[in-house]
Amino acid sequence: MPTLTYTSEPTSTNTAIPTATSTPAFCYSLDDWTTYVIDSARPYRAVFIDSADLDGDGYQDIVTGAWWYRNPGAAGGVWQRYAVGAPFNQMAVIHDFDGDGYLDLLGTKPENPGSPGERGNAFVWARNRGDAATPSQQFEIIDTGVTVTGGDFLQGAQVVSFSPGTIEVILSWHSKFLAHLDALVVPNNPTQSWGLRQVSTVTQKEEVNAGDIDRDGDLDLLLGTIWLENLGNGTAWSAHTLYSTTDEPDRNHLIDVNGDGRLDAIVGYERTDSQPGKLAWYEAPASPTGTWTEHIIFNTNSSDPPGARPAMSLDVIDIDGDGDPDIVMGEHNLKNPTQGRVFIFENINNGASWIRHQVAIGHEHHVGTQFVDIDNDGDQDIISIGWEHSNVLLYKQNGCATPPVATPVPTATATSAAPHTPTSTEPTTSPPTATATSSPTATTVAPSPTATATSSPTATTVAPSPTATATSSPTATTVAPSPTATATSSPTATTVAPSPTATATSSPTATTVAPSPTATTTPTKSVAPPDPATTTTPDVCVSPAGNVIANPGFENGVTGWSFFTSGSAGFSVVSDNTSYCGNYGRVSVTKAGNNVQLFQIGFPLKANTRYTLRLTARSSDGRDTQLFIQRHTAPNTHYGLAGVPLDLTPQWQTFEVEFTTKGFSGTTTDSRLRFWLTSGVAGTVFDFDEVALVETANLGTPQPTSTPTRTPTASSTPTATATSTATDTPVPTETATATSTPTPTATSAGAVTHTPTATPTATASSTPSPTSTVIPTGTIAPGTCVSPAGNVIANPGFENGVTGWSFFTSGSAGFSVVSDNTSYCGNYGRVSVTKAGNNVQLFQIGFPLKANTRYTLRLTARSSDGRDTQLFIQRHTAPNTHYGLAGVPLDLTPQWQTFEVEFTTKGFSGTTTDSRLRFWLTSGVAGTVFDFDEVALVETANLGTPQPTSTPTRTPVATAVTSPTPTKTSTPTSATPPPSGSELVVFDWNKPVTTAQRGFPWDSPPMPSANGNWVTPTNFANGTFYFRATIRSMPTHKLARLQFCVWQKSASGQSLALETCAPLKNFNYTGSPVTLTWSQSIDAMWKKNGNSLDWARPRERNGVAIKNSNGDPVSDYLPAWTSGGLWNGEKPTDWYPMDLRFTVVVVQAGKAFSGWQNYP
Fold this sequence. Notes:
There is one protein chain. The chain has 1160 residues and is mainly beta. It folds into 4 domains: 33-405 and 417-436, YVTN repeat-like/Quinoprotein amine dehydrogenase (Methylamine Dehydrogenase, Chain H, 7 Propeller), CATH 2.130.10.10; 493-701, Galactose-binding domain-like (Jelly Rolls); 771-948, Sandwich (Jelly Rolls), CATH 2.60.120.260; 983-1158. The strands form 17 sheets. Strands 30-40-37-43-34-33 form a 6-stranded antiparallel β-sheet, with no helix packed on it. Strands 45-55-52-58-49-48 form a 6-stranded antiparallel β-sheet, with no helix packed on it. Strands 61, 63, 64, 65, 67 and 68 form a 6-stranded antiparallel β-sheet that branches. The longest helix has 4 residues, at 502-505.
């Protein structure tokens, strides 16, 4: 377990630099966990707990009862409790009910006004505003108008769609007097009154889950030991008992445990005086209306703590990345709550046996223990609640290696990031207490009819936060199967589910990211006939000769195909001879997941061979999919097709894409074709048919599928340009081209590492401050559209599409190449942001660099809204050493500009190709478009002899170059006094900074007038800082980066324990005074270790950190701040004295700033 330490001086806030490698640095240790109590004083009982990213910052927040907890970005950060909003009392489900892209909440009102608790039978929903000014205003509460007579409190709720375009919520009540299941019917406009209908008179009064149990293409319902067969659109049902027992089921889950393509049931039981509680899985037979085979996973016996009810908290996911589902279970022990345990049951051999791992002991759990990756580190953590305590619990999986993740930190732009730890009128929860979870030495369950006790865990010292100590991990022992378990062999082609880190395996390396240089990365498509009344295009319903895909038309059911979801979905084969080509494969999503894939493995592929992939597909709501062909086993190398999008519609379309295999040699069968379906939401249905993968040279001779169900009669050909001769067959009139369609080349986040804290000791001999020239409309700067001799950047003008370039985002964005001969230099690279992320980069790797050599980087760029980017040249693999260019800003505008910057390489010796050029694009927000062109990196001594790009598309026509207008601060013509009471001067440095300040001009303590209680009576804590700074002079011309920070002692008196900082601001001092103004909301500022300041208490210091172009403090503080040596390799006489005026004004929340004219 890692040790958390604090430094005595301010900690660095450099932007983390991610690394992507072909092998993710994941390894799972299911016995090493840290327990955090993120709220020890929840006001009253909560029924459910769940997680979702509610505020769009990329982190999963927590919802339970009437409250939501904003994720501070770290498990050990300060979690703030926010009320969803009265009269919302008990969360039932999370879903985007109004379709605006923001997740909403459905819940109940309290049974009696003023007496909140678990009871409530009237429904409201909380509409997520998305752009709320503060977290306390995140939701608008809207009444549904529905009250369920006789309802007490919910035990189960599930969002379903029984027919396209409809949304319902199945309700399972606790009350013994309410003997039926209900459904809330959501109107198209959910702000109107909702409907209520009775679904079934059969209920087990506990959890309810949906899935296609009988594989007929519609959603059935699992109640526990009974399942309801959907006889048509959810209006008629037939009940089937899957296993006869007097035991009382509680929690349940539908998932394919043994990989045979059928949904099995995992069921946890209540413990009563007359029966032992148990956890079991039930194997579905070929005909699911028959009896299912029970396999005992765990049950209690006399050696377990008295009162243990094992499985009243349950969740299922592939936690160890081996492709099969594992289980987390929390004990509901009211007699001995401190003996309540959390277990992971690791699936071995498709459910034949299970290894038990103890996560924690100390709390009882009720409808808790839900999986979530709380800190974006790539492994699963657990959140939980109980019935009789007021805690909200988080169990963080520590793992046996530090998984890669990019931590949100300030960037070099003044754009506000989403806040992480805001304050509110809600009580602040106590900082989470971190405890090292004791690890059991062994957990062997003997093969007996009733499982015997596990050996007791060895005692380990519980270390307090923040210095939790590691505990050794035990050797896990396989749990032998119960004698009642019946092991069945599974088809080899469908037993291996993909790792949930599948999105993390397509790593941006030289051979695993971009499609082959000759690949057609945007499939051509033609519209397939919508019904049998029209004719099909020829060859669509037959399999071409040489097709390496087994069962391509699903005529043999699910044979050869596998399916996995981290959410909830069903995979089935629909047999319908009246529609299209007969059988087809269907994936029906009931709960979105971050790893959802239909795939086939084990087909033969030849290296460096041209292939064509052809298939037919549709989706019920137009949501798209992506195609991958990759190595099946780790490290999941891409074999030439990575993230190619299919633009699906509700109508059948045939797609075709060519590519060349790469990333292996000879012939391999370690292969996987993957349809990536994470775009699906509850109710989305994906259909696939006639999947063919053929060597392109052999394409053209069709052969029938094993059971062809339809004979083609038309004479048209399914190509992008052909028009059908059948007059009643719809065909497309135009086809998208590869150069105009966004084609992601690397969209996985699997192998991203932290920025190393060490900074290279070498000092660049240049000032890496780019000069820029504005390109006039209709003209091009001379020499810009040609590549200089010696350019080490591949495909610098994007004339060969995306070849050589890679893209990654932790948010949502597309990378494409735009072909436009009427604009600038023809082709150019484009990044279109649809959702901001804390790790967004366009990059190229593997180019040669010589050590200690002067280079010039030249490029042309623009952004649609003037948002900036930063340049980095660094080592590609860990530890990502800076090679002389780190965080150099480009001041982009909506007009093309050419930038040029010189620097000297450092941080390595000799010549290296372990290199990366990176454009850092975290400043982008939804709608931002970045364009880049003509990127050149050349030894400065060789610069000057241009050579054409591979396909020059435009000749320079102008020689005039204009200079950009320097940044200026407006001078007002009049001044008005600032509003009394709503603004305060916080900091005003107005003198030279010398070496005596050691790089940190600050007030210690802050000025008394600005160091009082900022929470009451005036709320400055949720307000905004306004900054104005002028560097009047300094000894040399430098790019200085200034950052304002506030420091505070801890409650116990530890100096500088709490720290919050605004983003860095760049000042390019060239001999004349430079003045900049900007602002930053306090909520959105970076926080040390994710911990907010207590703004009701006095602060210890306010001040400025002076940093170089790398973002390193020009300081001689030891040791944490000088990893590059004293003054971080800079000469202090180059920087100081710096004549600086730096003024900070805080403005009350909700008030407007009066203007700098009032602060001369």
